[in-house]
Specification:
- By secondary structure, the chain is of the alpha+beta class.
- A hairpin with a 3-residue loop joins strand 9 and strand 10.
- It starts with 5 loop residues before the first strand and ends in an 8-residue tail after the last helix.
- It has a domain of 219 residues: 3-Layer(bba) Sandwich (FAD/NAD(P)-binding domain), CATH 3.50.50.
- The strands form four sheets. Strands 4, 5, 12, 13, 14, 15, 16 and 17 form an eight-stranded mixed beta sheet that branches. Strands 1, 2, 7, 8, 9, 10 and 19 form a seven-stranded mixed beta sheet that branches. A three-stranded antiparallel beta sheet has the order 11-18-20, with no helix packed on it.
- Helices cover 34% and strands 21% of the residues.
- Bound molecules: flavin-adenine dinucleotide.
Length: 468
């Protein structure tokens, strides 16, 4: 522990955003304190990771451990609700190094691994320490932080990485909901599910629900006998179904609704036919939202604490971790060159981070627009008017893999163009032309995906023993 409890940085939250910030800042030589409310490992949603995370894992020094512990993910498959059409998007169609093989993680395990790494890099970490108040307004700019157990700390800069708790945004009255993305998520793990239909080759499965539900199932294997199944639905539909279920006298209406939708979707009905729920149902109702002012001379909100977007494209962990990396460069300038230079670089980095988030937001809006393209029927062999434009397919692959921070303006223009199929040809030279094949397996097999991963955490947890 720092002797005077005085730090360069205090970080609220030890999730992937907080831990990555801590590691990048420690490597620049700063003293860092991470305050985390929970005792890790603790369960969390957000288990499917993008290939663009891979270089970050390598840089942070956790890649080998990731390979030993987590299921691999070679691509994503989109299926319509009755199972009559599906398209598989294999990352190796556009990514030619090892990073095409991404990961599905158990977040309890993954988040602990990163937090331990932050500690091993020299960050002080206090778990079971709930931050209760901060003062950002001292004339000297020093930040005061109060936490449970009457603990008090000071730092030169505060990073809010408190996730959906949005610690600072709530206190500053700066949290706005995206009304058109008002959805709710139900998620749990299953044992004894069928490892078929792409689960056996590690694909993230996205299953569209019927149009009026305006939602989807996200299904991914997180262990050799553990499948995560998340239901995301529109709040209007939820209210209507809740009324029906409660009128029918069903007390546990959330569970009943989740099970009802599992039965209504061909894919989940099939793979969960003989499965058993392996942990309590997690419900996440607070999305999507953003804060307007996400940084100042002595604070920054990173990851979900400043903005949360619908998880359809599994983007949250990468957005949070890469924003942490990018923003650490600006913070270094702030500390080394002073406020004027620091604020200028922070504004530049913020523009890049906003560009990435806005791109993902546009992709999400298109996903939910029933008049727009449907990723389950967009393939080179489909009848779709988009078929045949290989470069457009490559662009989709890159977006699904997480290429949000580099050419977000061009991707954004590209998505605008997609609204008009006749314009497609103009985009042919944007990325390398590749013959695109929507393979059923992404050339993966059980050995490649599950190999000899050590899913000890999964084996150790049961419906009674989870922290969820
Ligand atoms: C249903 C659903 C599915 C998702 N699926 C995916 C996916 O497949 N892939 C993906 O990349 N993302 C996914 N996401 C998004 C992903 O979960 C988040 O983007 C990601 O966890 C953000 O990381 P973070 O570190 O910013 O916040 P978190 O991971 O939430 O970490 C915040 C931490 O702060 C701590 N904390 C909060 N308040 C305080 C306080 N006052 N004092 C101390 N500590 C505090 C919390 O205990 C927590 O540990 C999904 C989200 C939802 C809702």
């Amino acid at each position: 522990m720092n002797q005077n409890d005085d730090y360069d940085f205090i970080i609220i939250g030890g999730g992937p955003t907080g831990s990555s910030s801590a590691i990048y800042l420690r490597r620049k030589g700063y003293s860092v304190l991470v305050l985390e409310r929970e005792k890790f490992p603790r369960q969390h949603v957000g288990e499917s990771l993008l290939p663009f995370c891979y270089p970050l894992f390598e840089e942070l020094g956790v890649l080998d451990e990731m390979k030993r512990r987590f299921v691999r993910k070679p691509g994503a498959r989109f299926t319509n609700h009755d199972g009559t059409s599906s398209a598989t998007w294999c990352f190796r169609n556009v990514i030619f190094d090892d990073s095409y093989l991404s990961f599905h993680v158990v977040r309890a395990d993954f988040d602990k691994m990163l937090l331990d790494k932050a500690q091993s890099e020299g960050a002080d970490v206090l778990e079971e320490t709930n931050v209760t108040a901060v003062n950002l307004d001292r004339p000297d700019g020093i930040v005061e932080v109060k936490a449970s157990g009457e603990k008090q700390f000071t730092a030169r800069f505060l990073i809010d990485a408190s996730g959906q708790d949005t610690f600072l945004a709530r206190r500053l009255g700066d949290k706005t909901a995206y009304k058109d993305l008002d959805r709710i998520a139900f998620l749990t793990h299953w044992k004894g599910a069928k490892y078929s239909q792409g689960i056996d080759v590690g694909l993230l499965q996205i299953c569209y629900l019927e149009e009026q539900k305006s939602g989807w199932f996200g299904i991914q294997p997180v262990g050799k006998d553990r499948i995560s199944v998340g239901l995301i639905i529109d709040r209007k539909y939820l209210k209507q179904e809740k009324a029906k279920l409660t009128k029918a006298g069903i007390a546990e209406w959330q569970k009943a609704l989740y099970m009802q939708e599992i039965q209504a979707c061909a894919l989940t009905r099939d793979i969960l036919e003989h499965a058993e729920q392996a942990q309590p149902l997690i419900i996440v109702s607070d999305f999507s939202y953003y804060a307007e002012k996400t940084y100042g001379k002595n604070f920054a909100m990173l990851g979900d604490s400043g903005k949360f977007l619908d998880p359809i494209f599994a983007s949250g962990v990468y957005l949070g971790m890469n924003s942490s990396k990018i923003f650490a460069e600006a913070l270094d300038v702030l500390f080394k060159e002073g406020e004027e230079a620091g604020m200028k670089v922070m504004a530049e980095k913020k523009t890049q981070i906003d560009g990435a988030y806005n791109l993902v937001e546009k992709f999400i809006q298109i996903f939910y627009d029933p008049k727009s393209f449907n990723l389950s029927s967009l393939s080179s062999t489909s009848e779709s008017g988009y078929g045949g434009y290989e470069t457009a397919f490559a662009m989709f692959h890159y977006l699904l893999a997480g290429d949000f921070f580099n050419s977000y303006e061009r991707y954004s223009d590209f998505l605008d163009m997609l609204q008009n199929p006749k314009q497609f040809a103009r985009w042919k030279n944007l990325v390398i032309d590749r013959p695109n094949v929507h393979e059923k397996t992404c050339a993966a097999n059980w050995e490649l995906i599950f190999g000899d991963i050590d899913d000890a955490y999964i084996r150790a947890t049961s419906i009674n023993g989870d922290q969820a």
